[in-house]
Amino acid sequence: MTIDQLYNIYRQYPSVQTDTRKLKSGDLFFALKGPNFNGNQFASVALEAGSAYAVVDDPGLAGTDSRIIVVDDVLTTLQQLAKHHRQQFNIPFIAITGSNGKTTTKELVHAVLSTGYKTYTTQGNLNNHIGIPLTILSVKDDAEMAVIEMGANHLGEIASYCEYTLPTHGIITNCGKAHLEGFGSIEGVRKGKGELYDYLREYGGTVFAMWDYDYLHTMSKGIATIVKYGTINTADVQGAVQQSEPFLTVSISKGVHIPIVKTQLVGAYNLPNVLVAITAGKYFNIPDEKIRASIEHYTPSNSRSQLIEKDGNKFILDAYNANPTSMRAAIENFANIQSDNKVLMLGGMAELGAESLQEHEGIINLIKQHHWKAVVLVGGDFLKLDHPYIKMVNSIEAAAWFKEQSFTDTYFLIKGSRSMQMEKVLSS
């Protein structure tokens, strides 16, 4: 079956699913394979559950049911179908990547653009080789904008996503110490994230660039259109942190007529995320007041820069992920909060390769520079280092410790890599 033929079927049944547990009647089921699963085994289950067709790559299933479509490779077919669908649109496709802040930036940009355009975006964290095609295939005919988040942990990954996303605009939030195990070094991170710029340079695209970061000046050379944001005078949209406690308030001095934006985000490190949303809104002619209102109404979720008040205490829950760059920013922001009662509960940082011990030691040294009521370091390479703080093996153990305490009128910073599941500290 050709992609054109499969696309005709998709047009009749435009809801794609890869998990039989989430199937709805009329879905197209794509039987993906992985190291620990084989979706081909669930083709009949999918059809019994109401799937219109099942796309498989097990030749042995050919002819067993007229609703089974056999292809050479299901994942490749999913990506090719997504590209074919993408090619039906002549609208801005904005790709967002970076070491930190991708999801918050995506949510803010989507919130702003949605006030003026029918805008589709990545749901949750579907930002990989499976999630991105599924996101593209969820874009309906009425779309006027699409905002696509791209995650990556090795070279070549962003370049491959661009092949079927075909972005017209791009944002690299930053290039920090994340996924060093796959990228090898900070230079590798820049090269990997820079694959988005490479694509946009080749195809005459537009980038929104944080002009405070000198490395983005170098990385963006030769790109047709560069729209700049930041705290410096050479930015097209210029802003600064006016206040960051408890929530970030941003003052704007150039580019839009919005003197103040009062967000519901915790942390001065969210300034670039807010500025790029403002910049994208201005570029696409969203009225200034709608830009301001949409950012001010945005409430973070999924353990990202959330401020939670519970039992007389305040918790900054930023536990969706962590790397040395984001961990340092979160600790430094927390240190600036005016309170004598502050507790750090930090989980280990994953995927740092050979530099992991050194990076964890650097975080411990940063912690030592400030006064805390208590510090709890959980799991990962924090367990391998000598330090004067409380050690816990995992977040369940940390939650048990927390439950035994009698904290009141205390601030907490809870952060760690996804594998640490530090949000469990608050679920007890």
TrEMBL record:
Catalyses which reaction(s): D-alanyl-D-alanine + UDP-N-acetyl-alpha-D-muramoyl-L-alanyl-gamma-D-glutamyl-meso-2,6-diaminopimelate + ATP = UDP-N-acetyl-alpha-D-muramoyl-L-alanyl-gamma-D-glutamyl-meso-2,6-diaminopimeloyl-D-alanyl-D-alanine + ADP + phosphate + H(+)
Limits of the Mur ligase C-terminal domain: 304-381
EC class of the enzyme, as a word: ligase
Gene Ontology BP terms: cell division; cell wall organization; peptidoglycan biosynthetic process; regulation of cell shape
Keyword annotations of the record: ATP-binding, Cell cycle, Cell division, Cell shape, Cell wall biogenesis/degradation, Cytoplasm, Ligase, Nucleotide-binding, Peptidoglycan synthesis
Mur ligase central domain boundaries: 96-280
Positions contributing to ATP binding: G98, S99, N100, G101, K102, T103, T104
GO molecular function: ATP binding; UDP-N-acetylmuramoyl-tripeptide-D-alanyl-D-alanine ligase activity; UDP-N-acetylmuramoylalanyl-D-glutamyl-2,6-diaminopimelate-D-alanyl-D-alanine ligase activity
Coiled-coil regions, chain positions: none
InterPro entries to which the protein is assigned, alphabetical: Mur-like_cat_sf (IPR036565), Mur_ligase_C (IPR004101), Mur_ligase_C_dom_sf (IPR036615), Mur_ligase_cen (IPR013221), Mur_ligase_N (IPR000713), MurCDEF_CellWall_CoF430Synth (IPR051046), MurE/MurF_N (IPR035911), UDP-N-AcMur_synth (IPR005863)
Compartments, as annotated in UniProt: Cytoplasm
Limits of the Mur ligase N-terminal catalytic domain: 15-85
Pfam annotation, one family: Mur_ligase_C
Pathway: Cell wall biogenesis; peptidoglycan biosynthesis
The UniProt record lists the keyword Ligase: yes
This enzyme's EC code(s): 6.3.2.10
Cellular component aspect of the GO annotation: cytoplasm
PANTHER family: UDP-N-ACETYLMURAMOYL-TRIPEPTIDE--D-ALANYL-D-ALANINE LIGASE (PTHR43024)
Family: Belongs to the MurCDEF family. MurF subfamily.
Role summary: Involved in cell wall formation. Catalyzes the final step in the synthesis of UDP-N-acetylmuramoyl-pentapeptide, the precursor of murein.
The protein's name: UDP-N-acetylmuramoyl-tripeptide--D-alanyl-D-alanine ligase
Species assigned in the record: Niastella yeongjuensis
